[in-house]
Specification:
It is a single chain. With 471 residues, this protein is an alpha/beta fold. It has 2 domains: 251 residues, 3-Layer(aba) Sandwich (Rossmann fold); 209 residues, Glycogen Phosphorylase B (Rossmann fold, 3-Layer(aba) Sandwich), CATH 3.40.50. The strands form 2 sheets. It has an 8-stranded mixed β-sheet with strand order 3-4-2-1-5-6-7-8, sandwiched between helices.
Length: 471
């Protein structure tokens, strides 16, 4: 069996894997042999020309170092100040500096040059996320002929947003150098297809750029998930039960509404708290009967737009507290730090409402984790943004437009008033969907599609299909 080479911006660290994706990829690597390649996290004066291997908890990891200037242009600059806001349709938050693209491509070239000597001809390479879109091009330019797949963990932009990204034509040509491109949701595949079928000419003077040829690139949706049965077990573990008991003592019988997110402008946190404010304002019977807990650890807090989101959220939480708090009741708790998975699983299980309302999201695994953690005899209700990839999977969630805070406030009322039989029926449907789209099957389905299956003469099935299509 061919080796699997996983490539991502950062390599995993020591200790337990932080999320379901890292767990799944570790398991996949263990089954196939191979290694994980990426940035070490170290910033140095002279960039690495060769990767260094180390064993991290039984996982073979190859790492390179980056210079501070290259990392800033590649990561904070082009990746997170241009691609991230544009892919999330927040062009108003994109900051464009021409030299960032040079740094972005330079780091991808560095990745390719360090990775190439480590490859065998039959290795299968799986590249992850928007930081490394050009990697296949750079590997092909160096002579690599391996099967290379790419998975985008964030939404794919609409064509109009894509056209606003500097060098978007080159980036799309980079994607055409992959054998398989995976997206989170069908809406992302549709946006990709719309661009590929209706490419616009160059906006620069002179000869227009040639259209990008995607005829040899397969693009498909591979919705990522979690491990719902593992969360079901975790939600009744000793650590989870300890958290539940602590919260129950502080709630005094109130219904818990729970949000868990990184502090990111794409998560719609100010709109979420405003919707909760409208619930309390419009229906006085919920005062002293509900409590909102929002867990939001900081994310990329050196970037101005993230600091502004934090300030806005601070202000609106203060407004709700000032408007509704009583000497013996607080309407909400806002926590700016992360919790371990056992504690979160306990909170998920306790929460009568899981409030997952990003303005735009690739998938959103919090929705999956919340569903997996519920008590089958007395489950809570998932209130979910229509603009999360998870909405394509969880049709029986209460779906909302997060920009419409009146609608979200009404959805909260409906969820809190929902009778037990309806809650159970909705949850059973959601749990079945979470099991169908679990993270192990996600990684297996992608690799099975990417890995070559050969005929007797050594020609891959995909090559036969391609030759037939052009004959």
């Amino acid at each position: 069996m061919s080796r699997l080479i996983v490539v991502s911006n950062r390599t995993p660290g020591k200790g337990p894997a932080a999320g379901g994706l890292a767990v799944a990829l570790r398991k996949t690597l263990a089954e196939r042999e191979g290694f994980w390649f990426g940035w070490s996290g170290d910033l140095v004066e002279t960039p690495s020309s060769e990767a260094r291997f180390q064993d991290i908890d039984g996982l073979s990891v190859a790492q390179i170092d980056l210079t501070r200037d290259d990392h800033h242009a590649y990561y904070a600059g082009f990746s997170n100040s241009i691609l991230w806001p544009s892919f999330h349709l927040r062009l108003d938050l994109a900051t464009i500096e021409a030299h960032w693209y040079e740094g972005y491509r330079s780091v991808n070239v560095q990745f390719a040059r360090a990775l190439l000597p480590l490859l065998r001809p039959d290795d299968v390479i799986w590249v992850h996320d928007y930081h490394l879109i050009p990697l296949a091009t750079e590997l092909r330019n160096l002579g690599a002929r391996n099967r290379i797949g790419f998975y985008l963990h964030i939404p794919f932009p609409t064509p109009d947003a894509l056209y606003a990204i500097p060098h978007h034509q080159e980036l799309m040509r980079d994607l055409s150098r992959y054998d398989l491109v995976g997206m989170q949701a069908n809406r992302d595949v549709s946006a990709f297809t719309e661009f590929s079928e209706h490419q616009s000419p160059s906006s620069l003077s002179g000869s227009p750029l040639k259209s990008v040829d995607f005829s040899r690139t397969e693009v498909a949706a591979f919705p990522i998930g979690s491990d719902p049965d593992a969360f079901a077990r975790l939600s009744v573990s000793a650590a989870a039960t300890k958290m539940v008991k602590r919260m129950e003592r502080s709630l005094h019988g109130q219904n818990l509404i729970l949000g868990v997110d990184r502090l990111d402008y794409s998560k719609g946190l100010p709109q979420r708290v405003e919707a909760y404010e409208k619930l309390l304002a419009n229906d006085g019977r919920f005062r002293r009967q509900v409590h909102l807990l929002q867990v939001a650890p900081p994310s990329r807090d050196t970037i101005k737009e993230y600091q502004e989101t934090s300030d806005t959220l601070d202000a609106i939480c203060g407004r709700v507290m000032g408007r509704f708090a009583e000497p013996d009741w607080q309407p909400l708790t806002y926590v700016k730090r992360a919790y371990g998975q056992p504690s979160l699983a306990g909170l998920y299980r306790l929460a009568r409402v899981g409030l997952v309302t990003p303005l735009r999201d690739g998938m959103n695994l919090v929705a999956h984790e919340y569903v997996g953690s519920q008590n089958p005899a007395d489950p809570g209700v998932l209130v979910l943004s229509r603009f999360a990839g998870a909405a394509e999977i969880f049709e029986d969630a209460v779906l909302v437009n997060p920009f419409d805070t009146d609608e979200t406030g009404e959805a909260l009322r409906m969820a809190l008033d929902m009778p037990l039989d309806e809650r159970i029926a909705r949850w059973q449907s959601l749990m079945a969907a979470a099991r169908r789209h679990n993270v192990d099957d996600w990684s297996r389905s992608f690799i099975d599609r990417l890995a070559p299956s050969t005929s007797g003469d050594g020609t891959s099935t995909r090559d036969i299909l391609y030759l037939a299509s052009v004959a």
